[in-house]
Design goal:
With 301 residues, the chain is α/β, with parallel strands linked by helices. The chain has 11 helices and 10 strands. Helix 2 packs across helix 3 and helix 4 packs antiparallel against helix 7.
């Protein structure tokens, strides 16, 4: 685990290392003991709202063993990072700047970014703002125009609860400490961790999503040349599959993969993990971003 300072706040991250893909003595692809993180292909993983970088750790371990230097991050207001209550620090734009600050801190000039939900939108925003820093995108469950109503319906009761029933929420967070956490599966613990000990901070995080824009608008997305693997699934109003399909059709180098559900990458990850690993192999074989056509940044807010 590591941390760095961002405008007076602390942002936590974990560097899984990783290195060039190689054949292990068993004949399987994996990381050799001599692999150096400095030589690896950097991949930053960005989590969803009210969750933490822990949601990405199982996949991070897999991708680190397949030739990638994987770094996970806790956005401000999440996980082990500072509990910022300023709405301006909880917007998608701020999350994208936190991702870039992590690259600066680790002195990484160019990386692939994988984001889920809120993290997906932050990755898109960074690809618009600093396309030269992004080798490729893995976008899981983006929240765009078709999901606005569902997101508003889902998040508004939570904001009300965190603002006006904060003592009860805090008591629930304290009560979870009585549960036998070691007996629970990884994602069970992750869901328990999403119960905020600081409800006011959680409310600011949710309100921040609507305080700024959700990400690049449609005209800009059509000009994003960054290679993108886009994952979506059906039957989820907050992460509308139509948004994933729309994004794949808009981005010139976008490709859509349909997951069976939100749980496939977590509980049955083999198929999607292989797709992501193959995509990362592909983008690091391709020309550097400086040699690709640059996106037109003259449009959009």
């Amino acid at each position: 685990m590591g941390a760095f300072e961002y405008h007076g706040w602390e942002i936590a991250y974990r560097d899984f290392g990783g290195g060039p893909a190689a054949l292990t003595p068993s004949g399987k692809r994996g990381r050799t003991a001599a692999s150096s993180p400095a030589l690896a292909r950097p991949l930053v993983m960005a989590h969803g709202v009210l969750l933490s970088q822990k949601m990405d750790w199982p996949l991070a371990e897999y991708l680190a063993a397949h030739g990638n230097r994987v770094i996970t991050i806790d956005f401000l207001g999440h996980g082990d990072s500072s509990r910022a209550r300023d709405l301006s620090l909880c917007t998608i734009g701020s999350c994208s700047r936190q991702l870039e600050a992590l690259l600066d801190h680790l002195e990484i000039p160019e990386a692939a970014i994988m984001g889920t939900s809120m993290g997906a939108n932050a990755a898109l925003e960074l690809a618009y703002r600093s396309p030269e820093r992004i080798r490729g995108l893995v976008i899981e469950m983006p929240v765009l125009e078709n999901a606005l109503l569902g997101a508003a319906i889902a998040f508004t009761p939570l904001v009300v609860a965190y603002r006006f029933a904060a003592p009860a929420v805090s008591a629930l967070a304290r009560a979870r400490r009585l549960l036998p956490r070691r007996l629970l599966p990884h994602y069970g613990n992750l869901l328990l961790d999403s119960i905020p000990e600081d409800p006011a901070c959680a409310a600011a995080v949710l309100q921040g999503l609507f305080y700024g824009r959700l990400g690049p608008d449609r005209d800009v997305r059509r000009r994003l040349e960054t290679p993108a693997l886009i994952l979506g699934h059906r039957r989820d109003p907050i992460h509308a599959f139509s948004d994933a399909g729309m994004l794949a059709s808009e981005m010139p180098n976008g490709r859509l993969i349909e997951a069976s559900s939100v749980l496939e990458l977590r509980l049955r990850p083999e198929r999607l993990s292989e797709e992501i690993s193959a995509f990362l192999d592909e983008i690091w074989r391709a020309p550097r971003s400086s040699e690709r056509p640059r996106a037109d940044r003259s449009l959009g807010a």
